[in-house]
Structures are given as C-alpha cells and as structure tokens.
Write a structure and sequence with these properties.
Radius of gyration: 21 Å
Largest sheet: 7 strands, mixed
Strand order of the largest sheet: 6-5-4-7-8-10-9
Shape: globular
CATH architecture of the largest domain: 3-Layer(aba) Sandwich
Distance between the termini: 53 Å
Low-confidence stretches: none
Oligomer: single chain
Mean pLDDT: 88
C-alpha cells in the first residue's frame, strides 16, 4: 500500500491537472494522447481535457467558465439546468446548446480528436453526415475551417446558426428581437414568413435564422410538454440570445480566432466537393436504423415545407423491410459513402468514423466490424478502434466505436 501511486500521477506530470469529471477510460486515453502530441503551449490553447498546465488555465477551461451558464439557463427546468451545468466543459459550451439535437456528437470528444489528428488552422475538416454541425463548431473554435454536409434541410439550418453565432454583432440581433410577440405572430401565421425566405441582405438573413431556429426549438418543446408555443417562445428566445451574448463576451476576452464554415445541404453519396480537397474527415453515420431522424424532426421539417417521404428515400438507414433487407441497403450506402470520403480527402488524411451497434435491432450484426471491412476495401487503412461507453439505463447500446482510418489513396 505504501508504494501505491494514483493512476493520474502515473499518467501525467504533477504540473498538469485535468478538468473535473474527466474520469472515463476513453477520456483518460484521449487526454494522454493530447499530452503526448501537443506542446505545453498547444495544451494551454487547444486541449479538451486539461484544466491547468504548469499553473496556467487552459483556453477551453476559461472560455467555459466565462459563459455564465447559470444565468443562461435561469428560466430552464431544473433537469435542463443540471444537464447543462454538469456538461459545462463537455457539451453545454459555446453554441452547442442551441437546439440540443438527439444523437449529436460529444463536443469535447471532437475537440480532442482534432488535436490528436494534428488538424490546425489552414486545414479543412469535413463532416459529410453533419447533423447539427458539432464538428464544424469545434473546428471553428480552434480557428480551423470546416465543411458540413447533410441531406436534411433542418440540419442545414442548425449548422448555419450554430457556426454563424460563434462570431456576430450581438447588437444587430438584439435590435431585431425587440418585439418577440410580433415575431411570434408572424412565425405562427406564415409557414416561414417572406422576410425569412426572401431577405436579400445575407447578413440580416443569418440573424433571422437564429430566431427561426429558436421558434422551431419551441415547437418541439411544446409538443413534448403541456405548455404552449406562446408561453415558451419568449423563454427559448431569451436563452438563445443569452447563450450567444455570453459566448461573444468570452470569445472577445479570450481573443479566440474563429474559423470559417461552409454548410451544405447535400448527400454523402455524392459529395459536392472536389477530389483531394479536405485534410480530414470526422463523422458519425446513422447507426443503421437505430434512430428515425426524419420522424424525430418531423415538426421542424414540415414547418419548413419539406416532404418527409422524399427525404426518406435518400437517407441512410431509413429504407428496406425486415432486418436483413435494411442492413443490406444500409451497408451498400455506407460503402458508397466511404468511397466518397476517400475521394474528397487528401492522401494520408485521417478519416474517423464514430458508430455504435444496437444488437437487438441488428440481430447481432456488428456495424463497426462491417464498416472496417468496407473501409479497407475502399483503400482506407484501418488503424484503431477506440471504445467509448454510453451511459444511462435507457440506452440499449452500451458503447460506441471510434474507428480511425488513413486514406492511402
């Protein structure tokens, strides 16, 4: 007992301190990877899991603490408030909390991946199945340019809002929302009012899209609760504005250089990008048919005027009848998707795919095993499968696989 040395002391020099709550094995693995790859200066400026380096607070730690999440969520339910306060360093910071999207990436994990893949300003990172554009937000926070592609028009809207709000003029937003009731009346009266659809001033349009996303968030929230849209909208809009305002203050105080993002509605099966045009790919495909994203986003997509059945025919994981047929179609599309990732990424570029398997739904077929096989057939050299546990009694999946490939061309 006298000779026992605690694990963290074995892993890290005593001058390095991890952010509170960094206690999962996969997090320690990624933190150690950051520790081994990044210089001390880079650890201070970029790291995902460190709080102190030689007594200096890291940029991530300081930025999260400058955002005043207690004030942002002052009108939220107790459960929501605790969720975001507990996730202050992992998922609730920057603009990630604008429309919390089901199945979205763990932002802190993405930051660590960008670090250990050595993706820096001047590089372009692609997420070809982007969802709510978590990869783009994290890349932009590190000054890296990003491209998000997703087939869903609603995901396109989320991506635009979450990346645009990293660097805007808060006074313009506040001037637009002076009368929330008038805005709400227009949104309820018209299916996406004309000033949202046809505003020729691109800068103003971006600000209006923030309000539109807050409204669509409210519509979903009202559908899950007993409260009305009229009652909830001012609260949701206030939370959006507070989130953006506090992040802007943190960004300015920390002098963060924000990268640029291109958000595209398109298909991973036919990416609208040139060959050898991106430096890295980080993505998470649908876990076969584990989540019906169209059904999940039905109120928002219908409000925006989109036909769900048309989208369903193109989306990965939403076609077929019976497990075998669904999996056959799923793997065929994933093979096409991997081929496109190979085409658009440069030689020796890293390609990271995060995927989980619901054994009950797939009759025991492991998605990660098949994706590794398909990737290697496409010329993507498989490097590593890092396991990430999924916590919670409601989860039928117990872990996700972080699959690392290298594009050998």
């Amino acid at each position: 007992m006298k000779n026992h040395i605690p694990l963290l002391e074995k892993l890290f020099d005593k001058n390095y301190q991890l952010i509170d709550g960094t206690d999962e094995i996969f997090e320690l693995d990624l933190a150690l990877w950051e520790y081994e790859i990044l210089s001390k200066k880079e650890l201070v400026e970029r790291s995902a899991y460190f709080k102190l380096v030689d007594g200096k607070e890291t940029a991530h730690y300081k930025t999260c603490n400058l955002q005043n999440l207690e004030e942002v969520h002052k009108n939220s339910s107790f459960r929501t408030k605790i969720f975001f306060l507990d996730g202050k360093y992992s998922t609730g910071y920057a603009t990630h909390s604008l429309f919390p999207y089901r199945g979205k990436f763990h932002p802190q994990l993405i930051r660590a991946l960008l670090n250990i893949l050595d993706i820096k300003p001047g590089h372009i990172v692609l997420d070809p199945m982007a969802g709510s554009s978590t990869v783009a937000v994290e890349a932009n926070l590190l000054g890296i340019d990003a491209i998000s592609v997703d087939l869903s028009p609603f995901c396109e809207l989320m991506g635009k809002v979450k990346t645009f709000t990293l660097n805007l003029d808060i006074k313009i937003l506040e001037s637009i929302i002076k009368n929330p009731k008038e805005i709400l009346d227009k949104l309820k009266k018209d299916k996406v009012p004309e000033y949202f659809k046809n505003n020729k001033d691109d800068k103003k349009r971006n600000y209006y899209e923030i309000i539109l996303l807050a409204f669509l968030d409210t519509v979903g929230f009202a559908g899950r609760s007993s409260s009305s849209v009229d009652k909830l909208f001012p609260r949701v809009l206030d939370r959006y504005v507070s989130t953006i305002k506090y992040f802007q203050k943190a960004r300015q105080k920390m002098d963060l250089k924000i990268g640029k993002s291109k958000i595209i509605q398109g298909s991973v099966l036919n990416l609208p990008l040139g060959d050898n045009s991106v430096d890295a790919v980080i993505t998470s495909p649908p876990y076969s048919f584990a989540i019906d994203y169209l059904k999940n986003d039905q109120p928002q997509l219908e409000y925006l005027g989109h036909d769900l059945e048309v989208l369903r025919q193109e989306m990965i994981g939403l076609q077929g009848r019976g497990v075998e047929n669904k999996l056959e179609i799923y793997f065929d599309k994933m093979n096409q998707a991997l081929g496109e990732m190979k085409r658009v990424s440069k030689k020796n570029a890293p390609v990271v795919i995060i995927i989980g398997t619901n054994d009950i739904q797939t009759n025991g077929v492991r998605l990660e095993t098949k994706v590794i096989e398909l990737g290697e057939k496409q010329g993507l050299k498989f490097e590593l499968n890092l396991k990430k546990p999924i916590r919670g009694l409601q989860n039928t999946m117990k872990e996700e696989s972080i699959l690392f490939f290298t594009n050998q061309k």
